Amino acid sequence: MELSVLSIKGQDTGRKITLSDAIFGIEPNEHAMYLDVKQYLANQRQGTHKSKERNEVAGTTKKLKKQKGTGGARAGSMKSPVFIGGGRVFGPRPRNYSFKLNKKLKAVARLSALSSMAKDNKIALVENIEMSAAKTKDFVSILSNLKVAEKKTLMVTGAINSNVVLSARNLPKVKVSVASSLSTYDILNAETVLFTEESINSLEQLYSNK
């Protein structure tokens, strides 16, 4: 698969890069992608939910009424779950939702996500972006030139570019990631994935032999 390299002004530079079939041309493994996304979302959960059970709520333990002869059910404590202010039965407790996946499976999931986006023509290639200062206005103009300003966009760079990251961090529909830190969730969550030229080289070094 070949992609034309676009300039930051949105014009065709005349250069083309052939994408590796080992990265952008495999048969997507939907179950691997599902597991990787599931793990990502599970790891975001704090798991700090908690409600008080009957041994934790404040209240008297005095017997409310005599055992028999009232015509109602037995009642021994205000902490009972049947009363307002009583403890909850089997309420939520703090827990860890995270789980582990094999590195090879996660790699297959990322490659499947990249191949799926390439198959749907949702990827684009842009020349390396050099910004002398962190300016959101300049970054928005680049996105407008590339006609992705209104789309949920993932920009992939070869190395950490602090000016690009700072320029994009206030844009709710844009996320910047380096090639070595790509996640399946971020790829699939984007409408368009913008790769810089150097990011393609980084991806080939990371995944060509896997």
UniProtKB/TrEMBL annotation:
Protein name, UniProt field: Large ribosomal subunit protein uL4
Family: Belongs to the universal ribosomal protein uL4 family.
Record NCBIfam families: rplD_bact
Function: One of the primary rRNA binding proteins, this protein initially binds near the 5'-end of the 23S rRNA. It is important during the early stages of 50S assembly. It makes multiple contacts with different domains of the 23S rRNA in the assembled 50S subunit and ribosome.
Stored PANTHER family: 50S RIBOSOMAL PROTEIN L4, LARGE RIBOSOMAL SUBUNIT PROTEIN UL4M
Chain residue ranges for the region called Disordered: 44-77
Gene Ontology BP annotations: translation
Source species of the chain: Adhaeribacter soli
Pfam families: Ribosomal_L4
One Gene Ontology molecular-function label: rRNA binding
Listed GO CC annotations: ribonucleoprotein complex; ribosome
Keywords annotated in UniProt: Ribonucleoprotein, Ribosomal protein, RNA-binding, rRNA-binding
Quaternary organization: Part of the 50S ribosomal subunit.
